[in-house]
Amino acid sequence: MGKGGRRRGQAQEERNDEGGTRQVHRQSLSKWAWGRGTAITGRSPCIHVPRGSWTLPRTRSSRMKIGIIGAGNIGHTLAKRFRELDHEVLIANSRGPQTLSAIENETGAVAVTAAEAARGGEVVIVTIPQARVADLPSDLFDGVPADTVVVDTGNYYPRQRDGRIDAIEDGVPESQWVADRLGRPVIKAFNNIYAEHLGKHGRPSTDDRRIALPVAGDDPNAKAKVLRLVGELGFDGVDAGTLAESWRQQPGTPVYTTDRDLEGVRQGLLDARRERTPEWTATAHSPGTFETPR
Prior knowledge:
Blueprint: E1 13-16, E2 21-24, E3 47-50, E4 65-69, H1 73-84, E5 88-92, H2 101-107, E6 110-111, H3 114-119, E7 123-126, E8 149-152, H4 158-162, E9 164-165, H5 166-169, H6 174-182, E10 187-188, H7 195-200, E11 212-215, H8 220-232, E12 236-239, H9 262-271, E13 289-290
Parallel strand pairs: 4-5, 4-7, 5-6, 7-8, 8-10, 9-13, 11-12
Antiparallel strand pairs: 1-2, 2-3
């Protein structure tokens, strides 16, 4: 499984049979000195993943209201999977809810406007092309409660789609740029896995072949909520540190689209280098340029 990864059975874990939960001690990457193999003593709080939660029916108290802004591959896949888990899902795109009837019929998600998706969820997932984030209404999150979790799944593709974004080329992490545009803190998640794999490769928590996904952000409560959703979808969530450290899961890094296991993702995040590789750097022939917005 995964490059550089060990089988999950080697991860230090404790089982709590009375509570029916699986408690995995994960070393928070923010506790590591950013040098190869250098650790600081101390563990992050345990991440509690309900055993087999990806197949359990939701109780009324555990159901979430989830808004999804963007109905492309990732947005469509998350809508389908979250509905299968019995969460309430609102989904929006740039062309209006009348264009989403096929997704509504397939997934059971409710098509709405972007403003309704932003205001209708405990978790709001923004999953649109990077350069289009600046096209979202400036008041999109006005009046949205501060504890609403905003998730960014995006990636910067300067050569293939987005053109040049100066701030990102100068070293601002992609999701930090998104947070600055939205005027809201974000959690970076679901950006490093193909949509097809996200939809089909989730596995029970006892499966040694389980893929791990990094989750980065500054608010521990918001990050815990996203880690819970990652576990329900059938993946191991890895605390990837702060939003400033989220460049470690951007395109061109070891964990990007490599489907690593828990230990493989940990190691891949440590092995990542901040410099953008040529493949993921804008050129004079990139498809358009993007002016830094006001």
